[in-house]
Design goal:
The chain is α+β, with helices and mostly antiparallel strands. It folds into three domains: 4-96, no CATH class; 103-301, Fructose-1,6-Bisphosphatase, Chain A, domain 1 (2-Layer Sandwich), CATH 3.30.540; 312-436, D-Maltodextrin-Binding Protein, domain 2, CATH 3.40.190. The chain has helices at 9-13, 17-20, 23-29, 45-52, 58-70, 77-96, 103-112, 118-139, 162-178, 245-256, 325-335, 353-363, 382-395, 426-436; strands at 4-7, 32-33, 39-42, 74-75, 149-153, 159-161, 181-186, 193-194, 203-211, 222-229, 265-271, 275-280, 285-291, 296-301, 312-314, 346-347, 366-369, 380-381, 399-401, 418-419, 421-424. The strands form six sheets. It has an eight-stranded mixed sheet, sandwiched between helices. Strand 7 (181-186) and strand 8 form a beta hairpin. Helix 7 (103-112) runs antiparallel to helix 8 and helix 8 runs antiparallel to helix 9. The relative contact order is 0.09. Belongs to the FBPase class 1 family. This is fructose-bisphosphatase. GO terms for molecular function: fructose 1,6-bisphosphate 1-phosphatase activity; metal ion binding.
């Protein structure tokens, strides 16, 4: 009597002379059965062959019959080996994700690739150092009594906060010490500052040292904005010549007042729950988050692309009644329920341009700081706020306009010239312009 029990196909069948004459068949029989598909055969070798291949020409039909009956339950060892090798590669790839790239390394790579020169690398490193110092002061501002006003008023007629003045000094000192900056333009300075010849370089750096400084005392989001231009002509002058100080300043102003399309690099630093340094050198937008454990900006957002649409709008609606009727109609449209979920746009307003742009780069939407009856040219400065941010957003695939023309095409006539701005996801800006047309 033949007793049936469970056996491994490869072990029994490989003993049969038939399989020795057919290497391909042997390979198939050496496959591993899954736990749910063990097969019961007679212990008789001949009956096994007869049961599996009840045909005369077994050598011709073994592969077809076996494949049809058991392909769904058998995994070839070759497949398992390939899967194992793939798993090893995947594991190595996952481990690579934990390798950190800091801002300095990234800048050096850009220099090696020919995207920037060594001097611009030094300037950007100097700016990042200023941002680290400002971040530290902001975190301790209430402890070391750096909240409140300084008691002075800047060229805009605005009360200066203590940290406005200190942050401006930090930026200026870091840029001077880099030895690569020729002219410095700040929101807190009345006129462009020409760096002393001993420390000067060729780059023009424009910046707002603390954007949203009204948020400092309440520990809300603030930021720094910067842009870097190349000079049209050297603005340094010798005080021993016949030039007057006013003439020198005028040369600086001519040199500095360039349209945003001339920017070589631009960025911002966000001071919030995280400190995020975001920069573009004309090759996309990259964001680096400050790791406080070792004081380095680490690459966390690579080649940021702004969503084409968004469901967030950011306007100071306290000025609604002061706006143009066309703009009011657009805001009315945003408030109406619409697709895809039957909900209106969400209104968000931080009171910090850097915070608004940072959220928009990641989630999309539109930000507006339009002109109104009291501010004919809007509130933001063109040279060191609107232009650098527009450069960043365009590098990420977005758009920026004053309602009539591209922000980056506007040439400033004055250092502290203001401009209205609408900036954000390309489809959202296009939709706005349809209302303003």
């Amino acid at each position: 009597m033949n007793h049936s029990h469970t056996i491994v196909v490869g072990r029994k069948i490989s003993e049969n002379p038939v399989t020795h004459r057919h290497p391909t068949i042997t390979t198939m029989f050496e496959a591993i059965l899954t736990s749910s598909s063990q097969i019961t055969f007679s212990t008789s070798r001949s009956s096994i062959i007869s049961h599996l291949f009840p045909i005369k020409n077994r050598s011709r039909h073994i592969r077809q019959s076996f494949g049809r009956r058991f392909a769904s339950t058998i995994r070839c060892k070759a497949v398992e080996i390939a899967a194992a090798e793939s798993g090893i590669k995947e594991e190595k790839r996952k481990k690579g994700r934990y390798a950190l790239e800091n801002l300095t390394t990234w800048l050096l790579k850009q220099e090696q690739a020919g995207n920037i020169d060594a001097e611009l690398t030094v300037v950007l490193s100097g700016i990042s150092m200023a941002c680290k110092q400002i971040a530290s002061l902001l975190q301790r501002s209430s402890i070391i009594n750096l909240t409140g006003v300084q008691g002075t008023i800047n060229i805009q007629g605005e009360d200066q906060k203590k940290l406005d003045v200190i942050s401006n000094e930090l930026f200026c000192n870091c840029l001077r010490s880099s030895g690569r900056t020729g002219i410095i333009v700040s929101e807190e300075e009345d006129a462009p500052v020409a760096v002393e010849e001993t420390y000067s370089g060729n780059y023009i750096v424009v910046f707002d040292p603390i954007d949203g400084s009204a948020n400092i005392d309440t520990a809300l989001t603030t930021g720094s904005i910067f842009g870097i231009y190349g000079p049209d002509e050297q603005c340094l002058f010798d005080m021993d010549d016949d030039s007057t100080l006013d003439e020198a300043k005028q040369r600086c102003i001519i040199n500095v007042c360039q349209p945003g399309r001339n920017l070589l690099a631009a960025g911002y630093c966000l001071y919030s729950s995280s400190v995020v340094f975001t920069v573009s050198i004309g090759k996309g937008v990259f964001a680096f988050t400050l790791d406080p454990t070792f004081g380095e900006f680490v690459l966390t957002h690579e080649d940021i692309k702004i969503p084409k649409t968004g469901k967030i709008y950011s306007f100071n609606e306290g000025n609604y009644e002061l706006w143009d009727g066309k703009l009011q109609s657009y805001l009315g449209y945003l408030r109406q329920p619409g697709p895809p979920n039957g909900k209106p746009y969400s209104g968000r307003y931080i009171g910090c341009f850097v915070g608004e742009i940072h959220r928009m780069l990641l989630y999309g939407g539109i930000y507006g700081n339009p002109k109104n009856k009291n501010s004919k040219n809007g509130n933001l400065r063109l040279l060191y706020e609107c232009a650098p941010m527009s450069y960043l957003v365009e590098q990420a695939g977005g758009k920026a306009t004053d309602g009539h023309q591209r922000i980056l095409d506007i040439k400033p006539e004055q250092i502290h010239q203001r401009a209205p701005i609408f900036i954000g996801s390309p489809d959202e800006v296009d939709k706005l312009q349809q209302y303003l047309a």
